[in-house]
Amino acid sequence: MSAPLPRRLLVGAALASVAVGVLVVAGLRVVQPRMQAVSVEEQMGAIDAEACETDPAAWGWESGDISFFAYDRDGRSLNPDAPPLDADQLERLSNEGRPVMSTPSGRVQWLVPRAADGPCALVRVTSKDVQPVVSPRIFRVLLGAILTGMFLAVMGTFLLVVRPLRTRIDRVAAAARSVGSASFAHPPGTTDALGHITDVLARSHDRIVASTEALEARNKALERHLAGVAHDLRTPLASMHLALEALAAASEGPMRDEARRSLADAVYLSAMVENLHQATRLRHEFDVTSGTVDLTDLVQRIEKRFAIVGRHAGIEVAANTPEDELLVACTPALAERAVSNLVQNAVEHNDDPGHVAVTLTRIDGGRRFALAVVDDGPGLPPDALATLQSETFLLDEARRRGPGMGTLITNEVALRAGWTVRYRALEPTGLEVRIEGPIVDEDGPAAGA
């Protein structure tokens, strides 16, 4: 709910007292000179200043702290009893053109212009107390009361308004930061503007949670669907490979060329289906390092597969691997996709006759591996090579520019597995792709990691 009415009245009264106090102090400062001038004019009215014109040398009077004498514009008096004028006060009157006051020796002294010229042009009036103003003691008490009221008003405003308001704002900010998460807590309901904001946050949280749950359900269903499609297509595509391979080997002329092109399309279709399946897993933040794979066995199997495909395309595919196991932390299916995509690209983008070499070695004293895929094809221009180096499958901008999905998936798998991927152009033609990463010991943890 909004602030109670008594609190509002208290805050309003405090603010009003501050405003009144400021106005009173300012008014005293502004009105005081005018009140003093009026008082002097009243006292001048009781003096027979016209008699000064008859006998200026004898005009004047002094008794104790009260006196009055006449002077010309230069500050000279014909009355020998007249005291000299203060030069600063005379100069002030000349500059301001109105009565000026000074307080020498605790007395109040006024210098009042009376005529434009002559021995009675100026009249000096002294008095012990001629200004009808608030006494210093009363003024100090009033000022102290005003300052005390201002202090209490400020403290009351802070305690009753600012601090509770800040506490509520902090609660709303905390709720805003946790919208859509399990830690979201609806702040207490109110009917003011902050209350409306918290209600909007609560409704947004409910919508986000519902949308997230629905999206996760759709993603899981899509993943299951793609996995099923990939599984269902794997067997017929394998049979198609064998049939097209046999047809390409047994046919001649144009028929053989068509069989080879069909075989290449079947290989591409099989890789695309598998890439779509693995891409869905990567989009769900799948843990790439959830398993281990023997790269020696993997590279040998990939060599056999693409040696057959390459032979019909006029591309020789060969691999060189260690004799023993070489284990790395990576899900087998994703590791196979990462390496297969590189070999497939090297075969598809090479020219007849061409060569593709896959080399797997141990480096850094056997703690790390290096896998290189080298071809002698046309390669890539420098700008495309630099762009390919920094792209992964999850970059929407990269997918819009059109790099092959297989290469992007390879980059993403390597990034999550802690591997490095480098693309290097060869001279005079060709491309080298080199992957390096830690090796897993037989006991489990990665060596040198």
Major sheet description: 6 strands, mixed
| Radius of gyration, taken over Cα atoms and rounded to an integer in Å | 50 Å
Low-confidence stretches: 1-6, 393-403
Query: Can you give the mean pLDDT?
Result: 78
What portion of the residues fall into strands of 2 or more residues?
15-25%
Q: State the total count of DSSP E strands.
A: 13
Counting structural domains, the number is: 4
Structural class: alpha+beta
Structure annotation, total helices: 11
Instruction: Give the fraction of residues assigned to helices.
Output: 55-70%
Tell me the CATH architecture of the largest domain.
2-Layer Sandwich
Distance between the termini: 58 Å
CATH class category name of the largest domain: Alpha Beta
Look up the CATH topology of the largest domain.
Answer: Heat Shock Protein 90
CATH level-four homologous superfamily name of the largest domain: Histidine kinase-like ATPase, C-terminal domain
Indicate the overall shape. elongated
H/E element sequence: HHEEHEEEHHHEHEEHEEHHHEEE
